[in-house]
Amino acid sequence: MRSLASCGLTAMMGAITGKGRAVRRAHVQKRTLTPRDTRNAVENVINRIRSWRPCFMECNICGNDKFLDMNGRLAIRCSQCGSLERARVLKLVIDNLNILKPGVRVLHLAPEGGLATYIKERIGEEFYDARDIDIDRYQHVKVSHFDLVEECHNLPSDTFDVIIHNHVMEHLPCNVWAVLYHLHRSLTPTGRHIFSIPILRGYYEESLFPIGEEERQRRFAQFDHVRRFGMEDLQRSVGMVFKIPDTYDITSTFPKEMLDRYNVPEVARSGWSGHSIFALKKEDLLLR
Ligand SMILES: [Zn+2]
Asked: What pLDDT band is residue 23 in, cutting at 50, 70 and 90?
């Protein structure tokens, strides 16, 4: 599925570049390896070793038992629905919260196909609202056009029971905290704002300046990212907008056997990372 392969929603970033993706990739591949590249390669090898598991694995979204390699990570992407570990953890979280019931209104940004199907079947298609700035990227899910940068202030207040977005915020060339505020404003008083963002080693960093694709790749880990979130200062970035836990650990909520079975590697279980799933309540917003 193209949306997952490109790390969420490329298009919501607006018009950072008009070049073709193939041209961009070819361009990026020509650059010289940096110490960060080397470190990432070593981490990929370590993650491969850590991700090896002898048990039976299946996708908890579609039931498929075959997984494909992705970016050096072995057998991590569902070959059927395209789910990554963050989507499978997200499903564990929403199931555990028991929030998907008929009539519940869900706003799903840059919707993952497998999750979209699962959610629609439980709440009813008329209550499912999927949106993206590039609707042509979706063939099996009905998606409405929506530009978070230009239109987030138009979101109706206290409307959605569940709001979901995975790895979207790093693409937005604007004030990301304003976007998160407006999304949260659109949540019902008892709703849940569920999302993941690329939390990397180090500190929060962003640049809305046209620094070029190579520089974005180097600083933000992908040619079309405008920011990264840091493990070292998460409480001073996300934590100043939302009440979030001091640490991240899902092993106390989900048994090891379950996480093994649903192909959730160790790196996604504890410690803040790009796989971490936030499930915030309305009252978790600190900006009032
Ligand atoms: Zn699947």
From this structure: very low
Confidence at 75, pLDDT banded by 50, 70, 90: very high
Joined together, the tokens standing for residue 229 give: 């979130």
| Count of all residues that appear for the chain in the document | 288
Contact call for residues 229 and 199 (beta carbons, < 8 A): yes
- Taking the model in full, what pTM does it have? 0.82
User: How far apart are the C-alpha atoms of 57 and 59, rounded to whole Å?
Assistant: 7
DSSP letters, 174-243, are S-HHHHHHHHHHTEEEEEEEEEE--EESS--EE--S---HHHHHHHHSSTT--EEEESTTGGGTGGGTB-
pLDDT given for residue 38 in this prediction: 82
Q: Which two tokens stand for residue 245?
A: 């836990």
Ligand 1 centroid from CA 96, angstroms: 19
* 239: Cβ contacts below 8 Å, ≥ 6 apart: none
**138 φ/ψ angles, rounded to the nearest 5 degrees:** -115, 125
- Residue 131 in tokens: 């949106």
Alpha carbon of 69 to ligand 1 centroid (Å)? 14
Ligand 1 centroid – CA 32 distance (Å): 36
Distance between the two ends of the chain, CA-based, in angstroms?
A: 39
> For residue 240, what are the β-bridge partners?
none
CA of 81 to the centre of ligand 1 (A): 4
Query: 231 C-alpha vs ligand 1 centroid, how far in Å?
Result: 29
Which residue segments constitute the domains of the chain, with CATH numbers given?
2-284 (3.40.50)
Cα 77 to averaged position of ligand 1 atoms, centre (Å) = 8
How many whole angstroms from 253 Cα to the centroid of ligand 1? Answer: 22
Ligand 1 ion: Cβ-proximal residues, 5 Å cutoff: 59, 61-62, 64, 78, 80-81, 83, 114
